[in-house]
Write a structure and sequence with these properties.
Blueprint (H helix, E strand, L loop, with lengths): L2 H20 L4 H10 L4 H22 L1 H4 L3 H24 L2 H32 L9 H17 L4 H12 L4 H26 L4 H20 L6 H21 L1
Helix pairs in contact: 1-2, 1-3, 1-10, 2-3, 2-11, 3-9, 3-10, 5-7, 5-9, 6-8, 6-11, 7-8, 7-9, 8-9
Length: about 250
C-alpha cells in the first residue's frame, strides 16, 4: 500500500469502529476500501475480521454500564454467537473463493437494505414489545442469534442491525442495554472468526493492523459521542460506500 492508501484504510477503520457501536454495519466501510487498494475479496474479508476485533472490544467497554446484570443472558446468547461465528468462518474457508465473489454483492445489497429500513424496523420493534413477553427471548432468539453468527462469521456486514432487530422484538429490555449486548455478541463473532482465520487463511497484516488501530479509536468515539451524530448521515455514508463496493466487485 502507498502512504495515502494506508491513510484511507486507517480512516475507514475509525469510521467502521464508530458505526459498529452505533448501528452495526462497519464492514460496509472497510471492505470496499480494502478492495479499492487491491486486496482480493476473501483476503480483504479475513483481514477485516481481524481489524474490527479491537473496535468491538472498545464498544463493549464503552457500554459496560448497560451490560451490568446481563451476565446470564450474555453467556446464553454468546454461546450461540460463538458456534455460529465458527461455522460461518469455516464456510468462508471451505467454499471456493468464486462462491464468495458471487454472493458478496448480494450480501452487501441485503445489508444496505437492512441499514436503510433500520428506522422502520426500530419503530416496528417498539410497537410490538409486550411487558408479558419472555425475558430471555426463548428458543427463537437463540436460533436467530446463532444464524446471525453464521452470517457474521462468513461476511458480517450489518449483523448488528440483525441482532438489534431480533433482540428488540424478542426481549423485554431497554434498547440501550440491548445495544450493549449486540456489541458483545458482535465481538464474540469477530473474535472467533479471526482466531479461526489465523490458522486457516491468509491475512494482510498491514491492512488488519491499520483497521485495528482505527476501529479501536472509532469504537471509543462511537460509545462516547457517536449517539449525538445524525443517524441519517451515518446511513447515507454507509449506503454510498456499500454501493461503491458492489460496483467494484461487479466490474472488477
Amino acid at each position: 500500500m502507498t502512504l495515502w492508501e494506508a491513510v484511507a484504510v486507517l480512516v475507514a477503520g475509525v469510521g467502521a469502529g464508530m458505526i459498529n457501536v452505533i448501528v452495526g454495519s462497519g464492514t460496509l466501510i472497510t471492505f470496499p476500501v480494502l478492495l479499492a487498494v487491491g486486496i482480493p475479496p476473501v483476503t480483504a474479508n479475513v483481514s477485516n475480521s481481524f481489524g474490527l476485533v479491537p473496535g468491538s472490544l472498545s464498544g463493549v467497554i464503552g457500554y459496560r454500564k448497560e451490560l451490568a446484570g446481563q451476565g446470564r443472558r450474555l453467556l446464553r446468547l454468546g454461546s450461540a454467537s460463538l458456534l455460529g461465528g465458527l461455522l460461518g468462518a469455516a464456510l468462508l474457508i471451505q467454499l471456493p473463493s468464486s462462491a464468495f465473489d458471487a454472493i458478496v454483492p448480494v450480501l452487501i445489497l441485503l445489508a444496505l437494505v437492512l441499514v436503510v429500513i433500520q428506522p422502520r424496523v426500530a419503530k416496528a420493534v417498539a410497537a410490538r414489545r409486550r411487558p408479558d413477553g419472555d425475558p430471555d427471548g426463548g428458543l427463537a432468539l437463540l436460533a436467530g442469534v446463532f444464524l446471525t453468527g453464521v452470517y457474521g462469521g462468513y461476511f458480517g456486514a450489518a449483523q448488528g442491525v440483525l441482532l438489534m432487530a431480533l433482540m428488540g422484538m424478542l426481549l423485554q429490555e431497554d434498547l440501550q442495554r440491548i445495544n450493549g449486548v449486540k456489541n458483545a455478541l458482535a465481538l464474540i463473532v469477530n473474535a472467533v472468526a479471526a482466531l479461526f482465520f489465523l490458522f486457516t487463511s491468509t491475512v494482510d497484516w498491514a491492512a488488519a493492523g491499520l483497521i485495528a488501530i482505527g476501529s479501536l479509536f472509532g469504537g471509543m468515539l462511537g460509545a462516547k459521542v457517536g449517539r449525538r451524530l445524525p443517524p441519517p448521515a451515518l446511513r447515507g455514508i454507509i449506503v454510498v460506500v456499500g454501493l461503491a463496493a458492489v460496483v467494484k466487485l461487479l466490474i472488477g
